[in-house]
Amino acid sequence: MVRSGTLSRSIRAVAAFREFTLILVLVVFSIIMTIASPFFLTWPNIEAILLALSVEATIAVGMVILLVSGGLDLSVGSTLAFTGVVAGLVVSTGVPAPISILIGLLAALGVGLVNGLLVAKMKINPFITTLGMMTTIRGLLLVLARGRAVLNLPASFTVIGQGRLFSVQCPIYVMLSVVIIGDLLLRNSRFFRQSYYIGGNEKAARLSGINVDLVKIYNYCLVALLAGISGLLLTARFGSASVTVGSGVELRVITATIIGGASLNGGEGSVFGAFLGALFMGVLANALNLLGVDVYWQNLFTGLILIIAVVMDVINERRKSLQK
Amino acid sequence: MEDVLRVETISKSFPGVLAVDNVSLSLRRGEILALVGENGAGKSTLTQVLGGVQKPDQGRIKLEGEVVSFTSAQDAIRAGISMVFQELSLVGGLSVAENIFPNRQPIGRLNNIHWRDLYQETGEFLKRFSLDLDPMKQVKHLSMGQQQILEILKAISTNPKVLILDEPTSSLTEAEIAYLFENMRKLQEQGMSFIYITHKLSEVFQIASRVMVMRDGKYIDCRNVSEATENDLVSMMVGRQITHLYGAVSDKAPQFEYFRVEQLSRRRVFQDITFDLRRGEILGLAGLVGAGRTEVGRAIFGIDPKDTGRVFLNGKEVKISRPVDAINKRIVYLTEDRKGQGLFIGMPVRENLIAASLKKFTNPIGFLNGRKVDQYATQKVEEFSIITPSISKKILNLSGGNQQKCLVAMWVGIRPEVIIFDEPTRGVDVGARAEIYQKIREFAAAGTGIIMISSDLPELIGMCDRILVMHHGRIEGEIHRQDFSEKLILSYAAGLTGHINKHQPTLSVA
After folding, report:
1. Which of A132, A238, B7, B249 is 20 to 30 Å apart from B405, CA to CA?
2. By the CB < 8 Å criterion, does A322 face chain B?
3. Residue ranges of domains in chain A, CATH in brackets
4. CB distance from A197 to chain B under 8 Å?
5. According to DSSP H, which parts of B337-463 are helical?
6. Domain that residue B275 falls in
7. What's the CA gap between B164 and B197, in Å, rounded?
8. pLDDT band at A148 (very low <50, low <70, confident <90, very high)
9. What's the predicted TM-score (pTM) here?
10. Do B173 and B204 sit in the same domain of this protein?
11. Residue ranges of the alpha helices (H) in A189-211?
12. How far is A13 from chain B (nearest CA, A)?
């Protein structure tokens, strides 16, 4: 029988162990940092954290949905740079900014479509597919830009990255909107939750009437699109399109989603968790900076956090399995 | 009673094999039809055609008098035929509710799931089956048995007219099986019909009203269960008379004691296990799931640790702390989980057959003698009648029965003194079972003592000279052949004889 108070129990189910732990850790960590450095809890610092985090957090929303469905995309970093370069080149030839942005997004969508078709229809392993695309797209954009950075982008373009609303920069709004909408959808939309069934048991998902191929293609397009959006915002923020930007982004994004509870086997993960994972990595990097720690230590710490998170996960799962 | 389902001359072939050959059947409303046959008989293919997973090459399916044709499993479910497959189709990371209604959650206008409605509907549905499960609990935290029952409930939630169950009880405890049958009978009264595929013939007599036998893709016969005997069914399934499935009982009485286990204990798992084994004796170890039988076998063999206990072979104590200690003394343990823990299923037959006795085939500098290996493997394949196109075929391509024979053949290579055989015929079809029983009798006749752990009571009664029954980690009773009876074994297994603490088996969930 269903007990009363379903709402409070829903909240408890929603605020799953991993997310709750992350929030707790973040709060404790922030308290420690506030004591350790007078700059930590200031608005400029917080804004810097959020701004630095915006690229990875935005892409992480798409990546976690893809991971939940059992997929993987290593090409997001290249797509990010590709979109920025394409839009930058187009706007430099005088095309109005809005249209250039649209063309950039279409280019990103194209990459996602190719990834999706290769994985869903030709059944090529996602790791290999997106690894190949990562290198191919990076090569393509090098050819397009001929090695130079595209400089001096017009204000009509850079406003999307540098513009402020209530003194908060645009990319932060985009990140927050994407995270909130993404989390609501993955949690409550029947269509989006199909990814859980696909990642959990693809054959069974097919037998339940889910159009597995369509959802997979959709997910690859979504993550590529989000990578494109991040690329545009980043390019606009810096005022120039760089060909090297974005390398290593894919691994950081995946790390964030896994810290947030996603599994490489599919069927598990949440957008909110992915955001918390990215937030955690961002706060950690910021803390190390404020404390004057060498930049080289950042990777070490991030890697350690990832391993600890996964080990905790395994221990917790084993404990729960023994309880029944 | 009219026919709810009529299958007319269905055939289905795959490249190289005619899986279903001109099969017809009829199913009445509210009837449970058992479908039996050896591996490869065509049962799964036939039901896959009925369930919309495969399209037939010829033939018709009539559901409630109307001809139907399915292009997908969804079609079949919509029309009223649902299937429960052997492999689970649940998603561990999602809740019970979302598994019962996959992609069918109640939604609002924006495609948003109405969670409260979902959990409420799920709760009411579970209540109908007196199942005290939390609809919000993640499925990966349920036991295997609970998951299998959930799998079945998932199919029932589509309100099928015909429910096809493919070996639904392989991971269930006795209490869970009783629960399943009780609910099947309830649904039967409400008009649901079942096609029930199983290897366990005892279940056929427990739950079905009619039984249909298939062999080599063909329909053999369909009888009322009340008019059939196990021997009849076995003969039809195998195509030859098998009057003595368990082989002739040896007239040579087992000889002297040569193997002894004393005071074997492991906290919370088993206590004071003491017994002896005679040369040529087949000693059965019975008990309910969870009684600790497999754990005792594994402890003797050295896989699991023990707190106290001594093992004696030929009068001398043997110290076993790891499997290699047991193997050196030629005590072997054949696991109940051949695919996961016994065989190397991705490797060929020949590599598997020499796995336990590699030293025999290695020359002094450490290289394997390929020719010797091939010879040995070929010889064993013939000796055990293992059906395989070649010794290079991977184990996973063999049927369950042939895989089991490979497992036995693998360990026979070290010429064991004591064989602990855990569930010798689980998931094995009748033809292979008879062959395995014959092999066991041969080992016994040669003087090897065999400890047979089994949940199959007819098997124990048919094969053993003596049966020990365990209950909650202790040996509750010892039965000699002249006193064998299923009732006696079961009462010891449930702890109902002569002990102060009486335990009733219950369906415990959550």
Report:
1. B249
2. no
3. 18-27+39-313 (1.10.3470)
4. yes
5. 349-353, 370-383, 400-412, 430-445, 457-463
6. 257-340+417-493
7. 8
8. low
9. 0.74
10. yes
11. 190-200, 202-207
12. 8
